[in-house]
Amino acid sequence: RSPGPRPTLQKWPHPQIELDRPAGWVHVHLEDKSAGPAPRVLWDAVYDMGGTEVLKSTAPAMWGQRTDMELICPPLHGPPHWYELTISKEGDAKRRPSMMQDFLGSQVITSYRPDHDPQLYAFTVDLDFGDDAKKKGILSSLLQEQPTHPKCTVM
Known about the structure:
The protein is mainly beta. The protein has helices spanning 99-102, 133-145; strands at residues 17-32, 40-55, 63-66, 81-89, 103-112, 153-154.
């Protein structure tokens, strides 16, 4: 049974990437390295940067395994996740790709939910309203209205 479609960014198919030099055709590859025994591909696409330093978040993919990037929030129950993003030149069809010659850059990204960070709990405040039931009721209703979707932090 398939788990269904994975969530992607709503307005943009991928984040903006800025390189230190102009590039033409680039291959972008993002893997979740903590998804299990084998990495899971979250983004794999080729783009024409047109000789600029910026891959805009609205740039359409020319082709790839996964042209819309999957969100990188860790699952609700589980540890933080780490990801590896690699960007390389897309080779000419006439020559074999070489990571040594085509490599442009890589970055390791960590994502976690607030409950993974013990430093966040250092700033929690226990509110005591005493006998004021009205204030307790307001606080209780505000807490119940909070969305249940887990937020994540990306570093």
